[in-house]
Amino acid sequence: SQQCHPASPAGVLRFTDTHAEIRVPALHRVPSSLDPLYKLVRRCLDLIQQNPLPTELLRAALNDPGSVRTSQVMQYELGYVVCAVVALLFTVAMPVAGMCFCYCRSRRRCGGRLRAHRRSLGCRRHCLLACLSLTSLIILISVTCALVTSQRVKGQMEPGLGAVPTTLRTLRQHINNVPQGVQMVVDQFEVPRQQIISDLGGLSRSVGVSIHTQLKAMTYAALADLQDRAGDLQTSLHHLQILERTVLALASAQAELEPALRERRRRVVELLDDPRCTSCASVLGRAQSLELGADYSKVPSVEKVLKALSGLPRSDFAEMIRQGNGTFNSIPELAVERMAQVIQDLRGEMAQVSEKVQSIADSFPLPDYTRPASEALAKAEDRSQPYLREVHRFEQYRWIAGMVLCSIILLILACNAVGMALGAYGLSKREDPSDYECRGEAGAKFLLVGVGLAFLFSWLLILLVFATFLVGGNIQTLICRNWVNQEIYKFIDTPGNLPPSMNLSHQLNLRRDSNLSAAYRECKSGAGLWEVLQLDRSYDLDEHLKSPKYTAGFQKRLGEFSARLGDVRLLRGEGRQDLETFARSGVDEVDYERYQQEMKIPVVQTSLPGLARNLEGLQKMQRNNTMAGRLAAEARALWQLQNSTVQSQEALVARLGESVQFLSRLAPHLQERVRTTLATTASVETRLPVQAQQILRQELGCFTRRELRYFTQYLSWVGQTLREDVASCQPLATALDNGRVILCDRIADPW
Question: CA-CA to 601 of 20 to 30 Å: which in 22, 229, 239, 500?
């Protein structure tokens, strides 16, 4: 059996992306040069806040805020309380220390006096210079990190806040556009339908050409064999007729030649036996053997064979072969004609399949059950706007305060740098290190300005640091850490933790046997909305996408189709009888070897030209003119006999030899060849319809499998598109993951 043609790249369907404009793009953590710093801060937070998620405290805060005791909050926030105490001590200690320093300075007890130069004074100055330089460097690195992270928070906050309503809106659009998306997916059935209709247009001719291509070698070989046997019949009849006529002509010519030859022999022998003939005894023997050679009256007669072949061929083999060849070559056109109705039926079947595919959209259950989720998302979007605006406003205040305080720190660092530079320069220019020098005094004043600014503003900076640390740290430890380890989902799923107004499972219309964690996991793994929502009836998409539901009629029509496309008559009855008569005629029974034996014998035993040349040679040797004249006359008579009679008989013998040679070659194989030709022709006539039917079934099977692959591709694409795109709940999981990335990775980490 022949194999199906391999699938070409054109057999892969291309469908239009129908839902790209309402997808939720997945956000990911972007690697940063500050990642080591973020990790250090998270380790610090793990030490400060070692408590797990306070489920009892959160339950009480959400359901009955008045029942929450301050001691419970303080106990949970103990690490931050310690940080607050440190910040408070710093806030109080720094202004007090500054006031004490100012008072001390005003009493001229905290520096400002010239000291006698000693070696220890120089060492002390260098040590203080090194310590102040190191401290300034550490502060510079820290304030640089503060500026970078503050700017990064500002850069991430605005798009992060904007992503919240955008994500909610995209989710709502995704849910609301499910019916239109499903319909667009169903409408894409036009792609395989058009491909199948196109393939149907060339099916019948393709089947006919395939039958013709696969059977032509066998058919053409049978026709060629039949043509050879018809040629053998015609040629054999022709040579038999030549054989009979030639033998009759030779027998008649020999009957006429024999008296003349006998007379010539008598006269030549008498002449050569004459005593007056000089040196004639040497030729006498040849003259005495001058008689007929071959006797064609003894060869077998072919009259019986010719009688058996009389009237043949009664059929026109050339026309018969032409008609058989034409009938076989018309198989492609015949296939087009015979398959026209089934092609039309299959096109009608495709219209019915389109109606069945439309049922996928008509029976899709989501439009009636996604309304609660859509309303909940719209409500969340509306309610989030005021809070987001407030967050944005406070972020602006934080950024301004941070920039101002960081600028003051930079000013302090500038004072330190200028003071140290002027002081060092002034000391280097004094001849006596104990003398007063204005540049050194200016450097000292810059250092004092830096100290004053530090006492005045550092407590404000530590308050800002503590505030951002308290908010960002609680976001990291209370939300982000528990978001990553899924504890926050467990809290939401536990009955009673959330008030009825915040029941997300009810608001999103999730299945009764499901919860937010399970829905998140199912959505993350690519489940469809219908698989996580609470429906009145179960909906099995796989059942609606089973290929036999749409292809059964198509397969049935192709499977039941049958047509006889190989009825070719190669040899009609008269032609068969002609060949059988030819085989029984006895052509192969004639003794052609007897003919060949006779043809090896010359027409005349003694060569007339040779004898004539001998006589001419003797003529020249004679002294007797009379004898010479008689020898010349006999030589001329022999030449005349050779040219007038013997040569024509030799030509007949040569012609006879051609016919005998052909017939002798044909005769041994005649019976077998005719029998083989008749058997082959009958076999081909019998096998052609059977094999044509087999090829028809095979080609239709290959066509069916190819077209079913189009159905399978489409239905597989429908399932994948509905689950992963149009009606997928994966955007919900993606939105939750995006919220964690925005809040924790892009905002909380820099904060």
Answer: 239
pLDDT in tens, 385-431: 888 888 888 888 889 988 998 999 999 999 999 988 888 887 777 66
Give the tokens for residue 460: 């404000």
| Amino acid at the residue 326 | G
CA distance 325 to 322: 5
Beta bridge partners of 292: 604
Phi, psi for 365 (deg, rounded to 5): -90, -5
Asked if 702 and 4 touch (Cβ cutoff 8 Å), the reply is yes
Structure tokens at 108: 């001229």
Q: What is the 3-state secondary structure (H, E, C) of 189-207?
A: CHHHHHHHHHHHHCHHHHH
Q: Is 321 helix (H, G, I), strand (E, B) or coil?
A: helix
Phi/psi of residue 603, each to 5°?
-60, -40
Dump pLDDT digits (tens) for 694-706.
999 999 989 998 8
Q: Which residue has the tokens 């008269």?
A: 574
- What is the distance between the alpha carbons of residues 640 and 619, in angstroms, rounded to a whole number? 18
Query: Where along the chain do its domains lie?
Result: 1-31+216-364+539-734
Amino acid letter, residue 642: Q
Report residue 247 as tokens: 């033998």
In this structure, are residues 430 and 437 in contact, taking their beta carbons and an 8 Å threshold? yes
Q: Which residue has tokens 């941070």?
A: 402
CA angle 24–29–30, rounded 5-degree value: 115
